[in-house]
Specification:
Length: 455
């Protein structure tokens, strides 16, 4: 069916029945053809393809379980379909359920370029809403940056190399979820920078300073996870480093995560250091505000902590530098990790956290509407703490990287925010953009954000 309302789509889907299927492979060519023929009229265009089996054609499946090894029986060519998707400027995301589709995804990237496919793990059906939020958010952010590019200053906090996605290519990588045997991984000497935040008196300007040290680390060869923009690697910091969840074994090494951006930095666009500093500084400021929140929160609410994120500089053989962020490894991250809200109005109603949504509201009031900490995600640690990572900060100034949607992001937060008991106890002020939130808004605020951005 063509684009319609959520209710119409639910009714249509309820009447769909899966029939046929004499082999393992699926009619991916026909599905892409049908998607291309929809009435794509808006600027934000997202196609999420979820499959547990590859397309027909030996190049997509290795020749196993395919009744049409030469390709689509109607003669459709994947090269033509992918070219049309790119021509229509549709962002293509593949929801991976198992490894049988790996060859197909590699073939798609070979045809459409390394940037063509954004891959997301959807083996657990519960992860779909979060993957959809991340995918659509990334599309909105990319289009927002394109629109705002001419208005933002260059340099710190403005549009940096990662912002110009269309000009960049993806790094070559494969996801490996198994932690390596650290005895076989050599140590590497690196330089680690820590960010410290202080305030010039109550409600004063936030000051940021950095301190650097030499260190030794070990890092996995392959990433174990990926997001819309970054890759995550297993790692350890050798020596008695201080981390929130530090646990030491053998040679006293703290288990950490190293993260880097997916895209290759070209010489003409810099080495990407500014992008990594935006991440480090944003999380340091979020952590500072969380500490201040904990001093004044109601006694029956939970404490909030953000993992400390550090900048890691690695010297390459050619004398250049590569950058990563380093942070503590969440225990049982693959089981307990929850996204509580997003940077464009999503609120998790299934795992609703009144303290965290009140915290976002509180940061807006505390800073006199200058900034707001959102995109809160992490775990509940014990019975009285949230431990979070990778927040976004909406700010009136063009800083904190590409997830900063400024005033529009703040307004969208309030449009789905209902002040809860924690808000009331803290005396937080109603906002003129607030309205009664829907019972389960989840993805509904996306259309509001698109309208506000005129995309």
């Amino acid at each position: 069916m063509d684009f319609s309302t959520a209710d119409d789509f639910s009714s249509f889907l309820a009447g769909v029945k899966a029939l046929g299927g004499a082999d393992t492979c699926e009619d991916v060519h026909g599905g892409m053809e049908a998607a291309i023929n929809l009435s794509w009229s808006k600027k934000n265009r997202v196609l999420i393809h979820i499959a547990d089996a590859p397309a027909h054609g030996i190049q997509f499946n290795g020749g196993s379980g395919d009744s049409f090894p030469t390709g689509d029986p109607r003669g459709l060519r994947m090269e033509d379909l992918i070219a049309k998707i790119k021509q229509l400027k549709i962002d293509y995301t593949f929801g991976k359920i198992n490894n049988s589709t790996d060859a197909m995804i590699n073939a798609f990237r070979a045809i459409g370029g390394s940037n063509f496919v954004r891959c997301s793990d959807m083996a657990d059906v519960k992860s779909f809403p979060f993957a959809a939020v991340d995918t659509i958010s990334a599309t909105i952010e990319n289009n927002f940056r394109s629109m705002a590019g001419a208005l933002r200053p260059a340099g710190r906090g403005g549009l940096t190399a990662i912002s110009e996605k269309s000009m960049k290519s993806l790094k070559s990588y494969r996801i490996n979820t198994e932690e390596p045997n650290w005895r076989t991984i050599p140590e590497r000497r690196v330089r680690i920078g820590s960010c410290f935040v202080s305030a010039s008196g109550p409600g004063g300007k936030l000051n940021v300073r950095y301190s650097y040290k030499d260190a030794k680390i070990k890092m996995s060869a392959d990433p174990f996870a990926e997001g819309s923009q970054r890759l995550s690697y297993f790692g350890i910091e050798v020596g008695r480093a201080t981390h929130f969840f530090s646990h030491f074994a053998g040679s006293a090494a703290a288990t950490v995560v190293f993260k880097t951006f997916k895209h290759v930095y070209e010489r003409t666009s810099g080495d990407g250091r500014e992008d990594f500093l935006n991440v480090v500084e944003g999380q340091a400021i979020a952590n500072y505000l969380a500490a201040e929140f904990n001093k004044v929160r109601p006694s029956d609410s939970k404490e909030i902590h953000f993992l400390s994120v550090k900048l890691m500089e690695v010297s390459n053989d050619d004398g250049s530098l590569s950058y990563y962020t380093m942070e503590d490894m969440f225990p049982d991250y693959h089981v307990k990790f929850i996204k509580y809200n997003s940077n464009f109005g999503y609120v998790n109603r299934n795992d609703f956290a009144s303290t965290l949504n009140a915290f976002s509201h509180w940061t807006y009031d505390l800073t006199n509407h200058y900034l707001m900490v959102v995109d809160l995600q992490g775990i509940q640690h014990g019975t009285n703490q949230y431990v979070l990572t990778d927040p976004a900060i909406h700010c009136k100034d063009p800083r904190f990287g590409t997830t900063n949607l400024g005033r529009v992001g703040m307004e969208t937060f309030f449009e789905v925010h209902e002040c809860n008991r924690v808000c009331s106890l803290m005396g937080l002020k109603p906002n003129r953009f607030m309205k009664k939130a829907e019972a389960n808004p989840d993805l509904s605020s996306i259309s509001t954000m698109v309208e506000k951005l005129h995309l």
